[in-house]
Amino acid sequence: MIIGHILIIDDEIINAETMKDTLEDVNYSVVLAADAAQAKTMVEIQTFDLVMMDVWMPGQDGMSLLEEWMNGGFSTPVVMMSGHAEHQDVVKAIRLGAVDFLKKPLHDILPLVRKILSEQAIQVEKQLSGIDFDLPLKSARNIFEKQYFDHHLQENNHNIAKVAELAGLERTTLYRKLKDLGIDKK
Questions:
Q1: pLDDT, tens digit, for every residue of 44-79?
Q2: Domains defined for the chain, CATH in brackets
Q3: Which residues form the Response regulatory domain (predicted)?
Q4: pLDDT of residue 86
Q5: In angstroms, how far is CA 12 from the centroid of its own chain?
Q6: What is the pLDDT of residue 128?
Q7: Where would I find the H helices in the chain?
Q8: DSSP class of residue 56?
């Protein structure tokens, strides 16, 4: 079972292959690109959960590609990598939108990849549901119920009898619940 789709952009093929082997051993799907041009093509035809990109590459360098992508609304997390990065490179990459900066040669990249992808999954889950799972259960349930009843009231022209039937509630119970949630019945 594949647990994440990762794009590695690195012109140092031995480094890229080593990372790929490490990640594929634990069921990540990995695609390699040797330069920015290949990476742009890959991003157009595939969706990735994480991009790991070298700073120094032939042609367009990683920093300018990062800047181009971030200015274009790229939402996939990007980790920059370099074997000889200066402090200002790290700061610049983070300011441009990279989620992390790794010094090559990489040692034990799995904890970082797992951390980034799990944080991303939590954010996606929160965005999809609109519910903050850090809330107490009653608060989260109230948010869900408000969304549920707002949706069904709109879909059914505010027909209380129909919404009560859909929800499996008596009309009087539904009226009480709508009042408690602060939902206008009209």
A1: 999 999 999 999 998 999 999 999 999 988 889 999
A2: 5-129 (3.40.50.2300), 137-181 (1.10.10)
A3: 5-119
A4: 79
A5: 27
A6: 55
A7: 13-24, 36-45, 62-71, 87-96, 110-129, 137-155, 160-167, 171-181
A8: -
Residue listed under structure tokens 């609304």: 73
- Cα dihedral across residues 94, 71, 64, 56: positive or negative: positive
Strand-pair partners of 81: 54, 102
In whole angstroms, what is the distance from residue 64 CA to residue 58 CA?
12
Distance, CA of 70 to CA of 44 (rounded, Å):
15
5-9 and 78-82: which strand pairing?
unpaired
Q: Are 89 and 55 in contact (CB under 8 A)?
A: yes
Report residues of the chain scoring pLDDT below 70. 121-131, 186
Query: CB under 8 Å, gap of 24 or more: what pairs does 144-151 form?
Result: 145/177, 145/181, 146/181, 146/182, 146/183, 149/174, 149/177, 149/178, 149/181, 149/183, 150/183
Query: Global pTM?
Result: 0.63
